[in-house]
Design goal:
heterodimer, A: alpha/beta, Rossmann fold, 6-stranded parallel beta sheet, 20 strands, 36% helix, globular, B: Alpha-Beta Plaits, 2 domains, 4-stranded antiparallel beta sheet, 31% helix, 42% strand
């Protein structure tokens, strides 16, 4: 059976068939036919954001916390360009999104029409794939393929640009999904020889380490379970990238903490000194490797990744395995079978020795609240409720990663690759919608939060009880920290001047506002935040001088970590300055 | 501080793609966005139903970069297959050039003699000029054009390289 439907109706029908619950969007001229189709259709819930960047980040937060694709609907021109930061963010962090953009009518394309932008051209390199649909008859198959591409292989954003006349024009739509050739078939399973070789390497390694990343999270909760199984079987310690936190429990004795620029001493030293590195779903990001020529010089490296282009991109590896993390972990667990783990006690003793450096220690002073303490208390008072944590970008993000212990996947939503300030609050909105009843907290900085502060209205409108916990040090703290380290404390434009009164702002939006100025009030105020049945913004005034340690300075090796108390103010040579 | 270039190798890649709008921009843009080089790029529809195009790219870079280029191309959704002819084994490469030369008297005769020796065809003639067509490897075209510089070269147009594996098998 097929029936003649408008492009807009076909689109909505396809979204429903795909099981979409929420559409994060903002209306405008070029999507009016779609919005009219959504009017009165209760199968989809449209979440009206206040800025299109918020729509994309909210969809990301929904996707990361639920494992389902996030859907965005925005208009042409500025609607599309505003959403691009979120699309690029999803591309870098491999988050499945399907972004529908309106476009001017096909006969107007290329004429500099009102609200026209070359959305396909603009998003070509920050989407996994994109389409301009010129015929409503192609819409159903295109939408189906967009979902397939976004969610399989290495996930990512897929954009579908639909001209306004294509939304209005009609085409037959059948009751069953459109037939289309399958042209996207990512490899998910490793070859038996690859698994055998990996097992042989794992069996004979004296100083093995698992270096895991966001790929384990993206592969689904089963991948995290299998990682724990494989760790138990082999005994190797585990470290993770920022994106992979939660795949392995932070309270496990073999957990080394996060690695990289602000990773723990033991994680970075173990990466440097290991004889076998098993990279599972991570991509040797520059924030992880530090100076490349000094990166883990004596190890044999196995790299498991679903994206072949991630393998040998920056660090050459000995055994590349292209495949899905969960599938390959399952293969490894199976082939390991009843093998006995090697005695790793010398390696563990060495690691324990590194642990005694207590690299996350920070000075507990009287006076302003230390931001690290604020995160530790937040963790202590909320962890039993299994909260979802989002962040903005900067020092607060690193402190959240360091001091909040994640024990399950999909609880930690942060902008890792692109490093997008303004990510956290809209992401919290998306996460709260996908996880009603869960405690969702955006750990923020006073600078980042202002980048998408308009989304407070979205949380109010949809009665989302998200909590925004601002570590307010009146600085773009990470910028200030780098200026200390690299530019002899010339704090060029990094002071957060003219801040709003966050408590008054919260109240203006119908939120509860709480200010914490005294350490003695910290626990009670956090409790008040948790107990309030509605959105809360907490302005937690923290030490202005606190810095994020440990730190591997720009251009340095894993072994050249700065710890709290090291002299940091100074300058650097041009080679180091040029590295990001 | 100085920026140091690295040693590079020339490679000929053939890429089979879905013939969809924007695919050329996507591939060309991939090269610019990631800082890869394009020495030449040709594209034409090769299938009966106009659904598939074959792109030949001549690039250069250090071997790990060539490997990355292959992987990056391969992960584009409309790309079916990427082959590095330079790595894959014996192959043939050809490029077509049109070369316009102006001259009279002895110079004109000399131009024609060089063209004959190079195996170029004359495809347009006036009393004072020739347009030669030469289908050859890039090296030989380089050398032909360079010789013509001495003999009244007006302009040259080149198609860029196309290539194919030798032997019975398709790519």
């Amino acid at each position: 059976m097929s029936e003649e439907r408008s492009g807009a109706a076909i689109l909505v029908e396809c979204l429903v068939r795909q099981g979409v619950e929420f559409v994060f969007g903002y209306p405008g001229g070029a999507v009016l036919p779609i919005y009219d189709e959504l009017f009165g259709d209760h199968r989809l819930r449209h979440i009206l954001v206040r800025h299109e960047a918020g729509a994309a980040h909210a969809a990301e937060g929904y996707a990361r916390s639920t494992g389902k694709p996030g859907v965005v609907l925005v208009t042409s021109g500025p609607g599309a360009t505003n959403a691009i930061t979120g699309i690029a963010d999803a591309f870098m962090d491999s988050i499945p999104l399907v972004v529908i953009t309106g476009q001017v009518a096909t006969n107007l394309i290329g004429t500099d029409a009102f609200q026209e932008a070359d959305t396909i051209g603009l998003t070509r390199h920050c989407t996994k794939h994109n389409y301009l649909v010129k015929d409503p008859a192609e819409l159903a198959a295109t939408i189906d393929e967009a979902f397939e591409i976004a969610t399989t292989g290495r996930p990512g954003p897929v954009l579908v640009d639909i001209p306004k006349n294509v939304q209005v024009a009609t085409a037959p739509m059948s009751d069953v999904p459109a037939q289309r050739p399958q042209r996207y078939r990512p490899r998910t399973t490793a070859a038996a020889e690859e698994i055998a070789e990996a097992i042989a390497l794992l069996e004979k390694a004296e100083r093995p380490i698992f270096y895991t990343g966001g790929g384990v999270i993206n592969s689904g909760p089963r991948a995290s379970e299998l990682l724990r199984e494989l760790q138990t079987l082999t005994g190797a310690p585990v470290t993770s990238t920022l994106m992979g936190l939660g795949a392995f429990p932070a309270d496990h004795p073999e957990w080394l903490g996060m690695l990289g620029m602000h990773g723990t001493f033991e994680a970075n030293m173990a990466m440097n000194q290991c004889d076998l590195m098993v990279n599972i779903g991570a991509r040797f990001d520059d924030r992880v490797t530090g100076r490349l020529d000094a990166f883990s010089p004596d190890s044999t490296k196995i790299h498991i990744d679903i994206d072949r282009a991630s393998i040998n991109k920056v660090v050459p590896v000995d055994l590349p395995i292209v495949g899905d993390c969960a599938t390959v972990l399952e293969q490894l667990v199976e082939v390991w079978g009843n093998r006995q783990p090697r005695d790793l006690s010398a390696w563990k003793a060495q690691i324990d020795d590194w642990r005694t450096r207590d690299s996350l220690a920070y000075p507990q002073r009287k006076g302003p609240i230390m931001p690290q303490l604020a995160v530790e208390r937040l963790f202590a008072l909320t962890h039993e409720r299994d909260p979802i944590i989002t962040t903005e970008v900067g020092q607060h993000q690193m402190w959240a990663a360091q001091y909040f212990g994640f024990v399950k996947p999909n609880r930690w939503l942060t902008s890792g690759g692109l490093g997008t300030m303004g990510y956290g609050m809209p992401a919290a909105i998306g996460a709260q919608l996908g996880n009603p009843g869960k405690l969702v907290i955006d750990i923020a900085g006073e600078a980042s939060i202002q980048m998408n502060i308009q989304e407070m209205g979205t949380a109010s409108q949809f009665r989302l009880p998200i909590k925004v916990f601002i570590l307010n040090n009146e600085y773009m703290g990470m910028v200030r920290q780098w200026q200390e380290l690299t530019y002899e404390s010339r704090y060029s434009n990094s002071y957060s001047d003219s801040l709003p009164d966050f408590v008054a702002l919260a109240e203006a939006y119908g939120w509860k506002g709480i200010r914490i100025e005294d350490q003695a009030d910290l626990d009670a105020s956090i409790q008040a935040m948790i107990d309030h049945d509605g959105p809360v913004m907490v302005d937690c005034r923290v030490s202005q001088e606190a810095n994020c340690f440990p730190m591997i300075p720009s251009g340095a090796a894993h072994t050249e970590m700065l710890l709290y108390g090291d002299q940091v103010e100074g300058t650097m040579d041009d080679e180091a300055k040029a590295l990001v | 501080m100085k920026i140091h270039p690295t040693e590079s190798e020339r490679h000929v890649l053939t890429v089979t793609v879905d013939n969809e709008a924007g695919i050329l921009a996507k591939i060309a843009g991939l090269f610019t966005a990631r800082g890869y080089n394009i020495d030449s790029l040709t594209v034409a529809d090769i299938s009966e139903d106009h659904a598939v195009s074959r792109i030949t790219i001549v690039t250069n870079g250090p071997p790990p970069v060539i490997d990355q280029i292959m992987a990056q191309l391969d992960r584009l959704v409309p790309v079916h297959k990427v082959i590095d002819l330079t790595e894959a084994g014996p192959h043939v490469e050809r490029e077509l050039a049109l070369v316009k030369v102006r001259g009279t008297g002895a110079a004109r005769g000399e131009a024609q003699r060089i063209a004959d020796a190079a195996g170029a065809r004359v495809i347009d003639t006036t009393e004072e000029s020739f347009v030669f067509e030469l289908t050859e490897t890039s090296d030989r075209i380089d050398s032909f054009v360079s010789q013509m510089r001495e003999h009244g070269l007006v302009e040259a147009a080149r198609s860029g390289v196309v290539g194919m594996m030798r032997g019975t098998e398709g790519a």
